[in-house]
Each structure stands twice: as C-alpha cells, then as structure tokens.
Amino acid sequence: QKEVEQDPGPLSVPEGAIVSLNCTYSNSAFQYFMWYRQYSRKGPELLMYTYSSGNKEDGRFTAQVDKSSKYISLFIRDSQPSDSATYLCAMNQGAQKLVFGQGTRLTINP
Amino acid sequence: DAGVTQSPTHLIKTRGQQVTLRCSPKSGHDTVSWYQQALGQGPQFIFQYYEEEERQRGNFPDRFSGHQFPNYSSELNVNALLLGDSALYLCASSSLGGFDTQYFGPGTRLTVL
C-alpha cells in the first residue's frame, strides 16, 4: 500500500464548475500538507500549504485537512481553462522528505 | 528574485554513461532536495542536502550521489545509467534547514537510450 493515494483521473469538467481533488494517506505522523500544480513538462508550483487539520482559503482555492480520517482535499471554485494541469498532493513531517500522490490530471473545458 | 534554477533543461545519454545535473536554490534557501518523476507518476524523493551533507536519502541505489557547495547550490550525479533512469529530475529548495516549504525548479528531463 502506498503512503499517499490519489486518484490519477483524468478528470474533465466544464468551465465554471467546482472541482474537488482528494488524497488519502496512511502515515499519522504527517503534519504538513501541500498541493502543487504542475503544467505539462514543467516543475511543480506550490498552490496551498496547510499545517495540521483545518481549512485554508486562497482566492478560488480551498484546502481542507482531516487528520482523523487521514484525508485531504483541494477545492477549486469558478474553474478556468488555465486551471487545466496535474494536481499533486504532498505531505511530510517537519524537515523530512515530501511524499507525493500520483497526481490528478484535470482538464477544464471552455 | 530568481527562483530555483536547474541545468541543463534536457539531456540525452546512452546506457552505462554518467550524468551530472545542477541546481541553484532560491535566494535565502539553505536546503536542497532532489526528486525523480517518472512519466505519469508523482515525484519520488532521492536525497536532501543541508550544510553540505546528505541528511536524508530515499530508496535509490548508490549509483545516485550528490553534493552541496558552500553557496548552497547542488549537483546530482548518476553513474552507470539504465533505461529506467529516464525521468524528469526535480530540485527543490527550502529554508530553515528544510522546515519551510519546498519550492521546485523546472526540472531536467533525462532520456537514456
């Protein structure tokens, strides 16, 4: 079993839809949770960074962490074609290595 | 403020050869981590350097080695290349000895023929 599980998709939604991306994990020691966006053939770009449980909002993006269920989510409101990319969840403990999910390929159709 | 930079952008090698990839961290960052990303997969941790020493290592053979210089830049070396080493190699930098968020460079795409 992988430490971090993420549905690879692909996921295709119409422009303006609300998108929900999710990851589950098995290591209860993870404390820091991140979402990265990766465009084709580029490096991952940090979108959201959350410590422990709770919600964090930044513009159209909301990250949620539920440590009791070992489940994290990223919501994108009013999705735009420019949001089309691969979304990677990642997590770690302190200064330790990042452990990534497989990534979900998302396409927003105009 | 320049972000994380990596060179070269692309590289083509043949099996058995050796390769060196380079990374300059974001200004103010002191920790460099290297990741390997195969096509369609999430990045896998190779190793992390802090204060010019390897501090953590992932599940990679010792054909993979690295170095960090006094200016915090870093190199990744891979010896005896295999076809399976073909991947995007990502460098990430962070501050506070690695306790801060990791920011990624654009990557080096390595193709082994």
Share in helix of chain A: under 10%
Low-confidence stretches of chain B: none
* C-alpha end-to-end distance of chain B: 37 Å
SSE string of chain A: EEEEEEEEEEE
Sketch the major β-sheet of chain A: 6 strands, mixed
- Assembly state: heterodimer
Instruction: Evaluate the radius of gyration of chain A.
Output: 13 Å
* Strands of chain B, count: 11
Major sheet of chain B? 7 strands, mixed
Approximate strand percentage of chain B: over 45%
Largest interchain contact: A-B, 24 and 30 residues
**Taking all residues together, what is the mean pLDDT of chain B?**
94
User: How many helix segments of chain A?
Assistant: 0
Number of helices of chain B: 0
End-to-end Cα distance of chain A:
37 Å
Structural class of chain B: mainly beta
Task: Set out the fold topology.
The complex is a heterodimer of chains A (110) and B (113).
Chain A (H helix, E strand, L loop, with lengths): L3 E3 L4 E4 L4 E7 L6 E7 L6 E7 L2 E5 L2 E6 L4 E6 L8 E8 L6 E2 L3 E6 L1
Parallel strand pairs in A: 2-11
Antiparallel strand pairs in A: 1-3, 3-8, 4-5, 4-9, 6-7, 7-8, 9-10, 9-11
Chain B lengths: L4 E3 L2 E4 L5 E6 L6 E7 L6 E7 L2 E5 L6 E5 L5 E5 L8 E8 L8 E2 L3 E5 L1
Parallel strand pairs in B: 2-11
Antiparallel strand pairs in B: 1-3, 3-8, 4-5, 4-9, 5-6, 7-8, 9-10, 9-11
Q: If you had to describe this structure to a student in words, what would you say it looks like?
A:
The complex is a heterodimer of chains A (110) and B (113). Chain A is an all-beta fold. In chain A, the strands form two sheets. In chain A, strands 2, 4, 5, 9, 10 and 11 form a six-stranded mixed beta sheet that branches. Chain A has a five-stranded antiparallel beta sheet with strand order 1-3-8-7-6, with no helix packed on it. In chain A, strand 9 and strand 10 form a beta hairpin. Chain A is globular. The N and C termini of chain A lie far apart (37 Å). By secondary structure, chain B is mainly beta. In chain B, the strands form two sheets. In chain B, strands 2, 4, 5, 6, 9, 10 and 11 form a seven-stranded mixed beta sheet that branches. In chain B, strands 1-3-8-7 form a four-stranded antiparallel beta sheet, with no helix packed on it. The mean pLDDT of chain B is 94.
